[in-house]
Amino acid sequence: MASLFAGKVLVVNNSARDELDTERELGRSLENKVLLLYFGSAECPRCREFSPLLRDFFVRLTDEFYVERASQLVLVYVSRDETEEKQSKFLKTMPKRWLSLPFKDDFKRELELRFAVADVPAVVVLKPNGEVIAGNAVDEIRRLGPACFRNWQEAAELVDRNFLLAEDFDELARRSLTEPMRRLKYKLSKKTEEEEGEEPC
User: Of the four listed, 44, 68, 175, 199, which is most buried by Cβ atoms within 10 Å?
Assistant: First the structure.
């Protein structure tokens, strides 16, 4: 997915406004993740209604208050705001993990054309390889909320290496906590048996 933004700059929505511009930084942020491209504008009434839903959707999948580990999800805001100040003001109300294109970047228009975005709000959902999962997931997010991420994850065929069912985790925890003690107990009993079996000199 980093190839989509090759040679581009993405801005992290934090107080420092960190920029991701190297291939390595972009790769670390975007690879093996479902990518949401959010086309919106702070002035658009429909966007003002939808943006808080999208914010909540994103936070519930990525914030440690709700989940133990952030989902394989990244969002890039593609602004249709009239001014840079309006874009900045809007982003201040959104999660710090959101990324955005710089206000004056013409690549925003290229993305609109590539994904046939006519109206906002629009959320294009992409696989890590850049294939489209959903041309506009606004209605899906409204209807299903965070539950739709699982469908996207399956469609993207993401390997969630850290995903364990609760029973798997219990079994792993039992095994990992008790195994060293069992080994030690086995060694001690084996040693005792050997000592008892030895003939006195």
Answer: 44
